[in-house]
Specification:
This protein has 251 residues and is an alpha/beta fold. Strands 2-4-5-8-6 form a 5-stranded mixed barrel. A hairpin with an 8-residue loop joins strand 3 and strand 4. The longest helix is centred in the N-terminal third of the chain and has 48 residues. The protein is 34% helix and 24% strand. The chain is built from 4 helices and 8 strands; from the N terminus they run αβββββαββαβα. The chain folds into 2 domains: 73 residues; 125 residues, no CATH class.
């Protein structure tokens, strides 16, 4: 193959590759814009949901097929009894607290046995580090039936870097209902695939409820701009390269 023909093939190949790259970047930018729309809709839905009246919590019969994510931050009510002697504490570092307590501490998570069967973990609120031992040695034995309400939250899956639970001190590192279930009486099964965040109580009272963190990572617009920028750069580079190819070669 002569040199001019080979040069044309290389030019066409490079141009096609750059155009494909630009097209892929445009597609990725458009996808991020779609994700932005979905995230904005979700934020709006949750904003409305947080102010809605509580609905009955899903019963145990629905738990195996329940779409928990679709109910995230849904106010729910449930009737049953706490098992205070089965309380587990989950380490956290509370910032931007609504109540007076903040910093390193623990979520106080107690099994709540439903009147209709099954157990739901209830996050009763936050306590500073120095109150952890008191939280798990609560000798309160009252198992009277009460009706409570709070926000339904999906179980938080543990990551591969999550430490093992400290069973002797009843300390966990994530609100993973499966891991929490391993630290309580097996007779409490079945365990719900969600937990409940209680609302705020009396100011200064511990555990400090009402500290649900409502936060959605939303970087889609920035990602979209980045991908569209890459597409523009690819086209500009291609145009500059083609222009250079058309310039007379100096001997």
């Amino acid at each position: 193959m002569d040199s001019p023909a080979r040069h044309r093939i290389m030019t066409v190949t490079f141009a096609v590759l750059m155009l494909v790259l630009a097209a892929v970047c445009v597609w990725l930018g458009t996808w991020q814009m779609q994700r932005l729309g979905e995230k904005d809709a979700l934020v709006a839905l949750v904003g409305e949901r947080l102010n809605a009246a509580p609905v009955p919590a899903p019963p145990a019969a629905q738990w195996p097929s329940l779409d928990v994510q679709a109910l995230n931050y849904q106010p729910v009510s449930l009737t049953g009894a706490f098992r205070y002697n089965q309380t587990v504490t989950v380490f956290t570092n509370l910032s931007n607290a609504r109540g007076p307590a903040s910093g390193p501490g623990y979520w106080v998570v107690t099994p709540f046995v439903l009147a209709d069967g099954g157990t739901v973990f209830v996050n009763r609120g936050f306590v500073p580090e120095e109150f952890q031992e008191a939280a798990v040695t609560d000798s309160e034995g009252d198992e009277s039936q009460v009706t409570i309400s709070g926000l339904l939250r999906p179980s938080e899956p543990a990551g591969f870097m999550t430490p093992e639970a400290d069973s002797s001190n009843r300390i966990e590192w994530v609100r993973d209902t499966g891991r929490l279930a391993a630290m309580v009486d097996p007779a409490l099964a079945p365990i719900a695939p969600f937990y409940i965040d209680l609302g705020a109580g009396v100011s200064g009272e511990l555990p400090q409820g009402g500290e649900t963190i409502v936060d959605f990572s939303n970087n889609h617009l920035g990602y979209a701009y980045t991908w569209y920028g890459f597409a523009i750069v690819a086209v500009v580079m291609l145009g500059f390269w083609l222009w250079r190819q058309r310039q007379p070669r100096k001997l």
